[in-house]
Structures are given as structure tokens and as C-alpha cells.
């Protein structure tokens, strides 16, 4: 009977060791998952920042395009006004 009890104790000890090993593995998995989650949050925040910057740049480019159009019209108007002047030869 002692042999039977010793075998049961040995089996229980072995199961206990496997359970501890699984718990350690689970803790490592949770830690890794937490790190991946933090990286994902950082990446998402960076993506939002880049998106906002891109929108600002697009708005600036639209303003520049509008300004170029206005300057083109003003240059054409100025050229037409200059053509109205007659330059007399002073010789």
C-alpha cells in the first residue's frame, strides 16, 4: 500500500510541476500580449498624427493653389494695363 501511496504522491507532484510550468507559460503569454497591445496603441496614435498632418498639408496645398490662381489673374491684369501705355521714342 505504501508503494501505491508513493506512486500517487509522485503523480500528483508531477502534475503539480506541469501545472506550474503551464502557469509560467501563461504569464509569459499575457506579458507578451500586453506588450503587443501597447505597441498597437502607439502605432494607432502615430497613424492618427500622420493622418492629421497629411490633412493639414492638403489644406495648405489647396491654399497655395488658390493663391497661384489669384496671382496668375493679377499678372494677366497687370500685363494688360502695361500694354495700354505708349512709350514714345525720345530721340
Automatic annotation (TrEMBL):
SUPFAM superfamilies xref list: Methyl-accepting chemotaxis protein (MCP) signaling domain
Matching Gene3D superfamilies: Methyl-accepting chemotaxis protein
Protein name: Methyl-accepting chemotaxis protein
Organism: Alkalicoccobacillus plakortidis
Amino acid at each position: 500500500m505504501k508503494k501505491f501511496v508513493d506512486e500517487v504522491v509522485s503523480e500528483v507532484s508531477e502534475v503539480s510541476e506541469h501545472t506550474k510550468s503551464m502557469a509560467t507559460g501563461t504569464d509569459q503569454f499575457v506579458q507578451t500580449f500586453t506588450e503587443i497591445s501597447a505597441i498597437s496603441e502607439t502605432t494607432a496614435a502615430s497613424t492618427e498624427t500622420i493622418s492629421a498632418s497629411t490633412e493639414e498639408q492638403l489644406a495648405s496645398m489647396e491654399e497655395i493653389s488658390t493663391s497661384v490662381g489669384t496671382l496668375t489673374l493679377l499678372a494677366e491684369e497687370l500685363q494688360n494695363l502695361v500694354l495700354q501705355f505708349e512709350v514714345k521714342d525720345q530721340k
